[in-house]
Amino acid sequence: MVLKVYGPHFASPKRALVTLIEKGVAFETVPVDLMKGEHKQPAYLALQPFGTVPAVVDGDYKIFESRAVMRYVAEKYRSQGPDLLGKTVEERGQVEQWLDVEATTFHPPLLNLTLHIMFASVMGFPSDEKLIKESEEKLSAVLDVYEAHLSKSKYLAGDFVSLADLAHLPFTDYLVGPIGKAYMIKDRKHVSAWWNDISSRPAWKETLEKYSFPA
Amino acid sequence: MVVKLYGQVTAACPQRVLLCFLEKEIEFEIVHVDLDTLEQKKPEHLLRQPFGQVPAIEDGDFKLFESRAIARYYATKYADQGTNLLGKSLEHRAIVDQWADVETHYFNVLAFPIVLNLVIKPRLGEECDVVLVEETKVKLEVVLDIYENRLASNRFLAGDEFTMADLTHMPAMGHLMGTDVNRMVKARVNMNRWWEDITARPAWKKLMKMAGFGLA
């Protein structure tokens, strides 16, 4: 039985999808209709009790939280494709550090921008201009730290691409596209070079090609 | 040479690492970074942690920040010593990671604004955002129902053993339980059982003593 990823058209599941494609692992996807509230139905809540995407089912085994799925796939398929966890315990520590930076520091302000700029009208809440401004300022300060770091390091965890870099792909793709703030990346020389590098990886291109939100 | 932890022993994120050290029986040294005077934003600390937060560690030449990453690193490096915090198989480890990530995305996002407004701001002489606290508590009730359901059929979050998934919740829970949010936990049979179980652990008691919370 093949591994299944639920909700492929949305951003967070793409962290799992790009990892699976990088590692050359076969999988299927199952669409989840968020607009119709499918994620709040009992059948889906049995897979993901918080009612968010992704959920992953691998035979009898179920797992949710996109970064936990990334770690699981990278570990399980360690011997095939690029080593996304580093080669030593210390390198893995650096991968975990930047994966956590993405989760705790980069993602929250970017999520605010995503919800209030891209999805407010669709989801039926008023777009909060003050929050948008504050979130852009917070994200800008974070990107300044990234700029300094990436001037000394090719990728986030060192000279190898890792889960930490891949975790940034889906929502940064929104930032430079539909959110309309590509300048935040492009105006920073090293962040821009890093972004061009990771977003042109074949696995990411395939993810976007196959699972972009239908127009 | 012993690992140095830069941080404040009463703050939640450094406590996450300290608790891991205590569970794994790892020797350590604390280098105090004074949050009340914003020492974490000063140039010397920014060299260790460029986002101006605590904790950061230095272990010989190896440096790391982000408390959850530090805890995972030491739990991996010292897998054979002290409590096993990362599960018995790849599948079990992934479930540990899953519930540890739930702490970051569903629990901490709500716990932090409550603790900030009810505990930290008063100490710094700042005004508490009462409306935000009340709104956040409503969201927290929904999340705690999910935890209650999970703990009804599992002794601990990742199964029948104490793991990183439980440990990572403890510092913020400890702060929350000092506010009126403790009602919400006590009203839920399984959460209450879980909290009493994990706070009876010797490592937690040692941590509380170090942090000056005066428990035996």
Write up what this structure looks like:
The complex is a heterodimer of chains A (215) and B (216). With 215 residues, chain A is of the alpha+beta class. Chain A has helices at residues 11-22, 42-45, 66-76, 89-123, 129-150, 163-166, 169-176, 183-186, 189-199, 202-211, and strands spanning 3-6, 27-30, 55-58, 61-64. Chain A is built from 10 helices and 4 strands; from the N terminus they run βαβαββαααααααα. A 4-stranded mixed β-sheet of chain A has the order 2-1-3-4, covered by helices on one side. In chain B, helix 1 (12-23) links the parallel strand 1 and strand 2 (28-32). Chain B has helices spanning 12-23, 43-46, 67-77, 90-124, 130-152, 164-167, 170-176, 182-186, 189-199, 202-210, and strands at 3-7, 28-32, 56-59, 62-65. Chain B is an alpha+beta fold and 216 residues long. Chain B has 10 helices and 4 strands. In chain B, helix 1 packs parallel to helix 3 and helix 5 crosses helix 9. Chains A and B meet through strand 4, helix 3, helix 4 and helix 5 of A and strand 4, helix 3, helix 4 and helix 5 of B. Chain A: GO terms for molecular function: glutathione binding; glutathione transferase activity. Chain A: Residues 88-215 form the GST C-terminal domain. Chain A: It is an enzyme of class 2 (transferase).
